[in-house]
Design a protein that fits this description.
The protein has 465 residues and is mainly beta. It has one domain: Methylamine Dehydrogenase, Chain H, CATH 2.130.10. The protein contains five helices and 33 strands. Strands 1, 2, 5, 6 and 33 form a five-stranded antiparallel beta sheet that branches. Strands 28, 29, 30, 31 and 32 form a five-stranded antiparallel beta sheet that branches. A hairpin with a 3-residue loop joins strand 11 and strand 12. It is globular, with a radius of gyration of 21 Å. The protein starts with 7 loop residues before the first strand and ends with a strand. Bound molecules: ligand LIO64GT3 and fe (ii) ion. The site of fe (ii) ion has 8 residues, from strand 20.
């Protein structure tokens, strides 16, 4: 039993529509964005879902085919288009999708934004009606066609990373709440490889932005290819090295750039500053959902694999990867598992934390883990990074999405609140699940009258804001 009444709206975004007439997408990340909401009030929950009306979605509906470059698919040309023409439309951004199927965030000024990795795929939505309101236009000269799908958003600001594919590196930018103008903070030059590493997300601490450079790098040639390659728009460059860079938020200066063991991550969990007895910052600790430097998770997430569970244990292993980045000028950083991955069945992705601990020392993370054998993360897990243990929720045949932590209003303790997930049950039905974040036991479930597609990331819009 909850000792308080939840009052607000949970929103979840994700690719939810993979079929256009006779044609079906092949990868999870290609689907057209479906926004789901569950509004909690007076002990009741009311749900709804709707497609985001991106240009890419509307064109696909109108013409019955893919019209923009999605994660893995590109439009089939009606007529021969020269390589030069294709290059021009790619580099102008015209052919890129605006299918904002990845994240949803509530900005400090109250606007709710759906996001993907293309800059043009930033779309303002109405959290009550789920209407597509407008494009979010960045009113600055920073440009960039792609950016991190996960900006860091607080009540006062928004931090983003813009990879530079021409001069391999990353631009770090920040935007004030209420503004549409990103401001240049600094630049990180890549240390290896022909192109920047994929930056789906990145972490920050109170004073620093951490810029990961993983050996899974963007690939201009693959961006152009008509058919998906094994690593889609990316290439694995083990020889190029893996690096973590640390930029001072205030000055834009790089204060550390270290080589680290190879890694594959999409989601950073959090980061914080490690201090000595005198209060001097000695290192940055950055945690992520790390796939043991193995890119096969991308293949795991092909729809064909997800729809065909044979009972074989095919989900690749993942862990909470903890980086330690020293700030004393040492050339190397460390990467180790923060706890025994067996605690969460060697599955680890789709994480959230208490936002009050963003960039600060923290103890708990919530994520999807695994009960094996499985072909997809099938548990919800609460990770205790101090005790190095996990509490797991599991229901046979169910597929839960990201457990999203929502603090109890007035909470002091880090895990005082709930974790909300949308679950697809074994029989295809769907429900919103509310777990007590402390005990990780079920408090309530609200059944949808129909099944729901899998979804990715969430946010919470409190009613009084
Ligand atoms: C449309 C273009 C691109 C799009 C990239 C997108 C849409 C990337 C989305 C990435 C996501 C949703 C990653 C999620 C990872 C989840 C995992 C690993 C879960 C595991 C299991 O629980 C570019 C590729 C940027 C190229 C331009 C065109
Ligand atoms: Fe993500």
């Amino acid at each position: 039993m909850l000792q308080y009444t939840m009052d607000g709206t949970y929103l979840r975004n994700g690719p939810g529509l993979w079929d256009l007439g006779d044609y079906g997408f092949r990868h999870l990340f290609d689907g057209y964005a479906t926004l789901v909401r569950v509004s909690f009030r007076d002990g009741h929950a009311v749900g709804a879902h709707r497609q985001i009306e991106s240009e890419a979605y509307k064109a696909a509906r109108q013409h019955g085919k893919v019209c923009y470059r999605e994660f893995s698919e590109v439009p089939k040309p009606d007529s021969f288009k020269s390589l030069v023409g294709q290059l021009a439309s790619l580099f102008s951004g015209n052919s890129l999708t605006d299918n904002s199927n990845t994240g949803v965030v509530r900005l400090g000024d109250g606007r709710v934004l759906c996001l993907t990795e293309t800059v043009k795929g930033s779309i303002v939505v109405d959290p009550d009606t789920l209407d597509t309101v407008s494009k979010f236009e960045y009113e600055d000269k920073l440009g960039g066609l792609i950016h991190s799908a996960h900006p860091i958003v607080t009540d006062t600001e928004f931090w983003t990373l813009i990879p530079d594919l021409i001069r391999p590196g990353y631009v770090v930018a920040r935007m004030d709440a209420g503004s549409n103008e990103r401001q240049f903070v600094g630049r990180v030059d890549c240390r290896g490889g022909p192109a920047p590493g994929w930056v789906h997300s990145f972490p920050v601490t109170e004073n620093y932005v951490v810029v990961p450079e993983m050996p899974l790098r963007y690939c201009a040639a693959n961006l152009l290819r008509a058919e998906p390659t094994p690593l889609y728009k990316f290439q694995w460059h083990l020889e190029s090295g893996s690096y973590m860079h640390v930029m001072c938020k205030a000055s834009g200066k790089i204060v550390a750039s270290v080589e680290v063991p190879p890694f594959v991550t999409f989601h950073f969990i959090n980061a914080y500053e490690e201090k000595d007895e005198e209060g001097r910052v000695t290192a940055i600790i950055a945690d992520c959902c790390e796939h043991n430097a193995d890119t096969s998770i991308l293949d795991n997430l092909r729809l064909h694999n997800l729809r065909a569970f044979t009972g074989e244990d095919v989900l690749t292993d993942a862990r909470v990867g903890r980086f330690r980045i020293p700030l004393d000028g040492s050339p190397f950083g460390e990467l180790e598992a923060a706890l025994d991955p067996e605690e969460h069945g060697r599955g680890m992705d789709m994480c959230s934390i208490n936002p009050a601990h963003l960039g600060k020392e923290y103890r708990y993370a919530y994520a999807c883990g695994a009960r094996r054998p499985c072909n997809f993360p099938n548990t919800l897990t609460k990770i205790d990074l101090v005790e190095k243990t996990a509490k797991n929720w599991y229901e046979e045949g169910a597929v839960p999405s990201e457990p999203y932590f929502v603090a109890r209003p007035g909470a002091v303790e880090e895990d005082d609140g709930v974790a909300i997930s949308m679950v697809s049950a074994k029989d295809g039905s769907g429900y919103a699940l509310v777990l007590d974040a402390k005990t990780f036991k079920e408090i309530a479930r609200a059944k949808f009258p129909y099944g729901l597609p899998y979804g990715l990331h969430c946010c919470w819009v409190p009613r009084d804001k």
